[in-house]
Amino acid sequence: MTTATPPATEHPYRAQPASAFWRQTVQQHHFLEIPSWYRKKWPIGQAAVATAGSCFAQHIGRHLRRQGFNFLDAEPAPPALPEARTADYGYGIYSARYGNVYTTRQLLQLLQRALGEFHPHDLSWQQASGAASGFVDPFRPTIEPPLPSPEAVHASRTSHLYQVARLLEKTEVFVFTLGLTEAWLDRRDGAVFPICPGTHGGQFDPALHRFENFGFSEVLSDLQGFMDRARSIRPGMRFLLTVSPVPLAATATDQQVAVATSYSKSVLRAVAGQLAQTHDYVDYFPSYEIIASPVMRGNFYGPDARTVVSAGVEHVMRAFFAEHEPPAAPNTSSEVPAPEEKEEKVICEEALLAAFGPGSQP
Question: Pairing with 178, which of 60, 80, 155, 221 sits 20 to 30 Å away (CA)?
Fold first, then answer.
């Protein structure tokens, strides 16, 4: 007796595209040819774009500028400064000279400081390191060589924050790369520093400084707070969020550094996803997944398993520009750059922490 085949039934998976299935999208493709990483929520076009975030965000800003997007630069380099030195003084890295913005709390406080709504207690750090001795801004300690006095730091910061406020008035699309959940705070006012005091200027004092590893609700609240305040300044501002694929250089938790990295990236990715799902003015671009997904087999990391090589950056940006067509037609090759191609300079305070591990040279 033959058993009749039950009739096919309809269910939601039958209507899903090929990109929803692992076998068709991942298993059957070479890792360089995996399709459908990203589908834009809205076009950027000629909208005025500003960027900020952790170290990996520097690549995004450079490519947007090169590809002819309307990239805002509130603090352009002075003509007398040689182009090879501009990054040493914080020019051309982001849309203003704020340096790396690693956490959402740091981003929110940057906005509040620019608008005169937050006045931190700590205003300058002394740095004593031979020829590099002087004073630095605690909130962007590596943005330029040390200055001769706290007054000079104050003048530089005042000019900078004025330009940040003007930048927010002009920005139509704000691109932010979430990098870390770990931060060091001033106990007196909650001010967040981009790096632990004492590692690059200043002195660490446990009575004044405390460690914080932000959780989902805190990261979500801070980023939502930033977006709400930014949209009150520039109504209609949209946000493109990414998560940095660069692992932590070091952790201040009691976790092994790879485990701490997993926590940090998981929180940041979840927050970005939550905001993209709930707001039509928020989009998420998966730079983290394109680099760090197991299907990529670590091919886009350097020998340290942390640095993203130029081939990886180019692969990420090709996926981005496949959806956001560049307004200009630059002279670029579709080929993946050769491994020996010179890597672009990336300014990253967090990487300085690697120098303090056991067995490292002082």
Answer: 155
Q: Is the pLDDT of residue 221 over 90?
A: yes
Give the chain's domain count: 1
DSSP secondary structure letters along 154-185: HHHHHHHHHHHHHHHHH-SEEEEEE--SEEEE
* 4 domain residue, yes or no: no
Report pLDDT for 131.
59
Measure the CA–CA gap between 10 and 31, rounded to whole angstroms. 32
Task: State the pairing for strand pair 173-178/182-186.
Answer: unpaired
Q: What pTM did the predictor assign?
A: 0.89
Q: 132 in a domain, yes or no?
A: yes
Q: What was the pLDDT predicted at 200? A: 85
Angle between helices 310-323 and 57-66 (to 10 degrees): 60
Span 336-356, pLDDT tens digits = 333 334 456 565 655 555 555
167 within a domain of the structure (yes/no): yes
Sign of the C-alpha dihedral, residues 21, 22, 27, 29? positive
153 found inside a domain: yes
